[in-house]
Design a protein that fits this description.
The protein is mainly alpha-helical and about 375 residues long. It is about 75% helix and about 0% strand. The protein has helices spanning about 5-20, 25-40, 45-55, 65-70, 75-85, 90-100, 100-110, 115-125, 125-135, 145-155, 155-165, 170-190, 200-215, 220-230, 240-245, 250-260, 265-275, 275-285, 290-310, 315-330, 335-350, 350-369.
Amino acid sequence: MCGGADARAELARQLATFISERAESSPQRQDAVANLIKLASDPIFEVRRSTAEFLSVVTPLEPELMFTIVADEDEIALPFVTKSPAFDLPRMLAVLKLGDMVRQVHLAARHDLFCQCADYIVQRTDWPACAALLDNPEFEPCEADYRALYRRFQDRPQIMERLLARDDLPLDIRILQAKHASRRIQDYLHAAAFSTADPSELLADAEESATLHVLVQASEAELDKAISFLLTRRMLTPSLLVRAALNGAMHVVEHSLAVLSGIPVKRLQRLFYERGPVSIKAIFNRCRLPTACVRLIQAAREVERLARRSGEDVSSDQFGVRTIEKIVTGCGDIGLHEKMRLLDLVENFGPERARIVAARLKSNLAQAA
């Protein structure tokens, strides 16, 4: 086109204004668009940038004109992709399917992103676009979105950090990620020969500790669903219940017993804390838990009952130590051998301070025997 770069840039401004006032079927508009396509392909960078900038506020735009700009250098294309109101659903999808990652990222951040485009990003694009989508305040992921993103990117920290930061992330995904993360850490430690302990024991301890942390943070509504999920995955183990009891997470114990026994949690709580030993024995019989697990939960129940009566807020370390006291002084019907077994459980599954106390007591009891 004739004239210098400044003249062509000014022409682009005039033509952009002209087509914004003309119907798409107008012959004059079609002539103007043809000239704008030439300006958008101009060999001078500044002319192309000015053309894209002037057109970034115009809608509608013809597809050939839009994609001439989208295909240009990033410095020209990306501002246009970010803010042009001319992107309808077919054109957004076209950029997502045919454009490179950086264009996908900029589209994913748009406040007017179509739901179908969000679905495509979740299912098909690489993690940077998915990360941009999760950062988009207008995006409200559903459960299926969370599951798809977790399935695709469970090893990608940039995605997992964003998922775990969301309050409405399904609890079973948090549990699976805790298990997955524990396995990765254990694999690393084992490969680096940082530990001579049995890897399977370390792994089980890390997995259950992480799982318990997720359960403790869960709401009442989430807890039953999460525990049912653990049951179907064979992850609701006696050791997890012991760990919860020793850490004072008695609401986790209560909901677990409710799921195992088939007794509604509110009724179970009344039976557990307000009724006599016959009712408690009936609960444990329905749960079919090992004897040592039952005895330890009963000791923790007494600690919890006294704490509720006094209104005291007991830390996990204090709760574990008080449970030890109940085992040693409050379980007169069991012998030394059984007390040693219970202290073994505390040493393996209790909070740190309780483990230390249990180990010391075991040594003292062994010497006294």
